[in-house]
Every structure is written in C-alpha cells, then in structure tokens.
Specification:
- Helix 14 crosses helix 15 (about 305-320) and helix 14 (about 275-295) packs antiparallel against helix 16.
- The termini are far apart.
- This protein has a domain at about 1-150.
- The chain has 27 helices and 2 strands.
- Strand 1 (about 490-495) and strand 2 form a beta hairpin.
- The chain is mostly helical.
Length: about 600
C-alpha cells in the first residue's frame, strides 16, 4: 500500500468527524486567540511580578501549541494536504517557526531569535522578543479572521461601512493599548482623549501629535504606534475585509467606487493575489529604506545601542513610506542631531515620494513582467493612471521645491550650503503628504505657508498611503477647465478622453474637501479662541492645522498640543474623514442606491 492509498483510507475513516471536529477547533481557536490577546495586553501593558509574568507567558506558550495542533488537524482532514499547505504557505511558515522556537525553548530554555539578536550586537532581547510574540499573534489572528467565510457574518453589508468600521476598530484598539501604564515613561496611564487623538493620528497616518513620541512613550508604546502606522497606512484590515466580501458576494461597480483610493478597476480584477502583492512590495520598500537609514546614521545615534539604531531605522522607514511623519526625535527631523543630516533626508524623501506615488503606479513602473513587456514591445507605455500619478507628483515636487528655494532664501534656508538648500527645498516639497519637517514650519513666511496649504490640499496619488484630494482629482479638474477655456468637445488628458463619471467624481471629491475644511475651520475659530488671542498666533495657524489634518499630512505650526478638547475632536474627525475618503463616507451615509431610467428635460442657466 503506497502513501496515496494510505491517505485515502485515513480520509475515509476521518470523514465522519471532519465537520464536527473542525468546527469545534475553529471556535476554540477564536476563543484562544481572544484570550491570548487579552493576556498579552496584561503582560505587556501592566507591571507584573515574576510569578504572574511566568503564568501569563505560560498561557502564551500554550496558545502557540494549540495553533500548531489546529493547523495539523486541518492538514489531516484535508483530502489534498500538499495543495492545502501550498495554499496556506504563509501560515505554514509561521507554524514551522512556532515549532522550531517551541522546541528550542523546551530543551534550551531560550529562543533562537534571542541567540540571533545577541549575535548581531543587540544588548537586550526582551524588547525584540515582545515584537516577536506580538507579530506572531497578529499574524495568526489576522489569518483566522480573514479566512473566507469563517468569521464575518453572512450578511450583505455596505463595503463602505466595513471599510469605516475596520478603521474605527483599529483606532479603538490602539486607544486602549496606548492607555495601558507600561506604554508611557511617566507614571500612570495616558489620558483617554490624548490616547484617542494619538491613535487616530497614527492609524490615519497623519502625524499630528499632542505629546513628544520619544520622551512620552516607552518602547512598548512606540511599538504600538508602529503597528498602527503600518496597518493604517496599508489599509490591510479594511482591504482584507473587502476581499472577503467581494469573494462571497461578487464584485460590482459600487464596490469599486469604495476602494478607488486603493486600487483601480483594471488592476483589482487582474490580480487575485493583490493583497499579498501589496504587502510584499511595501515591506520590500520599508526594508530597503531601513537598511539605507541604518547605513547613513553615522554619529547621529552613536549614544544608542545597535538594536536601538535598527529600531530607529525601521520606525522612520515605516513612518516615511506610509506618509505618517511621526518621528522618534524631539521636534521631528528638525532636531539638531539630524537637521543637517542631508543623506538621511534624501532617503526619507524617496520613501515618502514612492509611498505617495501609489501602489498601482509602483506595480506598473517596477513590476518585472511589465518592465520586460515594455522592453520587448517598445510601443507599449505606462498606464494612464500611472502617468497621472508620476508626472503630477514630480511636477508638484519640482514646483514646491522651486517656490521654497525662492521664498525662503532669507528665512529657513539662510546660512545653509547650496546642497543643503537644495535638499531642504526638495524635502519639504516632497514631504507635503507626510508631515516630516527639517525646518521650523511655524517660522516659515506667510507666502510659503500658503503654498504649503495648497500642496497639502492636493496631497498624494490614488492607491497611495497619503491623503488630500489626490493628483488624479487635480489632473481631471485641470483638464476639464482647459477644455472649457479652449471650447473643446471632450475632456482629454494624456491622449485619453476622461469619461463623465470620473469628472463627476473628481468634482465631488473637490467639493467635499472644500466644504469639510471650511466647516472645520469655522468650528475651530469658535473653540480655539484662546489660540487666536495669543500675540504670536492667528487664524492662519488654525487653517494650516485643519488642512494638514484633513489631508492626513501632519505638518503643524506648533499648536497641536494647545488644542482644546473640542478642538482635538474636530481635528480627529478631520483626520478620520480625510483618511477613509470623503466619497467612502458619503457612500456609507447614503444607503442603497436607487436606480431609475427617468430622464428629465434639460435645463439651462448662465454660469459665472
């Protein structure tokens, strides 16, 4: 009897109990996962005595063993185990690591990851062991929750609602974690409103902070911020939920509208493994960025251990690529330690630029198969959406850098070398979507502040980690204005005709942003009168703060920590709406679309 026949007999014997056993294990898995996450929150969020810590860690080890048993059971009950392992390869890798680390801990009392970190110069492994454990749990729980048809209720929810709920859930979890005592350096816990504000800012990759990240948060708190930035920037939870919904109910036009800022229609339908592709490419950019930063620190972080230097590299790389703008330096990159570290500034500039360029454009530009196709078939060019993202992004950077260089010669750029002036001008123009700053934004002249307002309002490209109305909206509106001025029959852009639907959507986004910012600025002028009464502050500070929040940028003239509770709530709502997208909010509030074929007679009126 060969292996295949043996497998068939085993499957026949186990078939009768398959559904019952797997259902039980699935429910236990959710229970164990939820319990383990709670235990981890207690273990890392509160100070524990050695005995209590050992008991909590014991439950963590038990949960790891249960995950392995569950996965092995699923293999045994599957009729094609090799195909099952191939389809769940990522989960299989995680389980293999768990087995290896569990064996090492059982026989040697330490983890292999600990030996590795010590071998490359880390002084302590406890903090990195924390990352290791948390990464395991996030992977396992996310895999279980996003496995099609197992957890999400079988109801037809509006995709926009799922999108928004996923962000609200992530913000809520981040708020609770940031309020735990061990997340801050100071005694006690973080205030609820400040924790909510910080979690919203990190999840919406905005970067407006009411506290100093490096002096207020402990290493554990910084890790929480790092995860919030990564998940919020990539929309992994929302996008994963949408994939599950789309696979169950099919993919329609309305669903495409909801995820317009993440993928375009052609790329989404063409790639069933898009989520994994997005993760791999983003991690690749962030990994290369972290390596480049680590090589360029020089003496700037000489007082920190090797492990801390790597953590600073990873944190700033993720923050830059996701356009978050949160830094581990007091006063951001304007800190005197690195304010003239121009090589580092160029690394961050590139990360921010590619993060704001958008995944659709990155795939089109750098995907090996597409590059080969363009080389073998020279008549093929980059896509229409890629041209908009690339040309307008480069154009805005050049325009902003030139304006910064001209307007701030006697201001922020005074005393710098020519190379320093070039670097600073390009940096502040490129990071219009991220919130990083190498100069004091509050010290800029009024003309440059006004220009930054416009650049922040425009923001990044579609399918990117940045905010704003997006370069696609700007390009379509400009093309339509040009059509009107030249009295052309059609709106044309890069030798393509822009359909009416896209023009309508572009003007809707523009109007939502204008109205949203106007209403929020009006409310801030009422709630923040104490800031307006300061001698060195005026309405421009509030306008700048609001546009920065709504565009999920993070640049500030320095008034974020001065905001009143009502002011913080207004800014939080602006960050949230700006991140999930104005059209998404409108779809969520609009309910079901009623389609009719009735067409009323055309009306005419004077315009202008």
């Amino acid at each position: 009897m060969n292996i295949q026949e043996f497998r068939e007999r085993v499957n026949v014997i186990l078939y009768g109990s398959k559904d019952r056993v797997l259902l039980l294990l699935k429910r236990l898995n959710l229970l164990v996962s939820a319990s383990a996450l709670f235990v981890l929150a207690v273990y890392y969020g509160f100070p524990n005595e050695s005995d209590t810590a050992a008991q909590l860690l014991g439950f963590v080890k038990f949960s790891f063993a249960f995950y392995v048993v569950h996965y092995v059971a699923r293999i045994l009950y599957d009729f094609q185990p090799r195909e099952f392992i191939r389809k769940t390869w990522f989960e299989a890798v995680v389980m293999a690591i768990l087995v290896i680390e569990g064996t090492s801990d059982l026989f040697t009392g330490e983890l292999l990851i600990g030996r590795f970190t010590q071998s490359i110069g880390f002084d302590s492994i406890s903090d990195f062991y924390t990352i290791f454990i948390q990464g395991y749990f996030f992977t396992i729980v996310a895999t279980e929750l996003l496995r099609g048809g197992r957890v999400l209720p079988r109801i037809r929810l509006n995709p926009a609602v799922i999108f928004i709920i996923s962000f609200l859930g992530l913000i809520s979890i981040g708020t609770v974690l940031l309020m735990l005592p061990e997340m801050t350096v100071q005694a006690g816990s973080m205030d609820f409103l400040d924790a909510l504000f910080t979690s919203t800012s990190a999840t919406c990759v905005t970067g407006l902070m009411v506290v100093d990240t490096v002096t207020f948060f402990s290493f554990k708190g910084q890790i929480v911020l790092l995860f919030l930035i990564q998940l919020g920037g990539l929309n992994l939870i929302a996008f994963g939920s949408f994939l599950v919904l789309a696979s169950r109910f099919g993919l329609g036009v309305r669903q495409h509208d909801v995820i317009e800022d993440f993928v375009n229609r052609d790329s989404f339908n063409a790639s069933s493994g898009l989520l994994g592709k997005v993760m791999i490419w983003c991690l690749a950019f962030e990994g290369l960025g972290a390596l480049a930063m680590h090589l360029t620190w020089g003496d700037a972080l000489s007082d920190l251990s090797t492990g801390k230097q790597w953590f600073y590299s990873i944190f700033h790389s993720i923050s830059a690529f996701n356009n978050a703008g949160i830094s581990l330096f007091t006063h951001g990159l304007a800190n005197e330690q690195i304010s003239h570290h121009y090589t580092l500034h160029w690394v961050i500039t590139l990360l921010v630029f590619f993060g704001a360029l958008g995944m659709v454009a990155i795939f089109d530009l750098f995907d090996v198969s597409r590059m080969r196709e363009r080389m073998s078939q020279p008549w093929k060019h980059i896509g229409f959406a890629t041209k908009i993202a690339l040309y307008f992004s480069v154009g805005l950077v050049v325009f902003g850098a030139g304006a910064f260089w001209l307007l701030e010669q006697d201001g922020a750029l005074s005393g710098m070398s020519p190379f320093g002036q070039l670097t600073t001008a390009v940096f502040q123009s490129a990071t219009r979507t991220s919130g990083f700053n190498t100069v004091d934004i509050g010290g800029l002249g009024l003309p440059m502040l006004f220009l930054l307002l416009i650049l922040m309002f425009i923001g990044s490209s579609s399918s990117s980690t940045g905010g704003g109305i997006k370069t696609s909206t700007l390009s379509i509106v400009m093309a339509d204005v040009w059509r009107t001025v030249r009295n052309l029959d059609h709106v044309q852009l890069f030798k393509r005709t822009v359909p009416e639907l896209l023009r309508s959507r572009a003007y809707s986004v523009l109007l939502f942003f204008l109205v949203g910012n106007t209403v929020a600025i009006f409310l801030l002028s009422i709630t923040e009168d104490h800031i307006l009464n300061m001698g060195d502050r005026d309405l421009m500070d509030l306008i700048f703060e609001e546009v920065s929040a709504f565009g999920t940028v993070g640049l500030s003239t320095g008034i974020t920590s001065m905001l009143s509770p009502f002011g913080k709530i207004i800014i939080m709502l602006s960050m949230f709406i700006g991140r999930v997208g104005t059209l998404t909010v409108a779809y969520a509030l609009g309910g079901r679309a009623s389609q009719t074929h009735i067409k009323y007679p055309e009306g005419h009126t004077m315009v202008g």
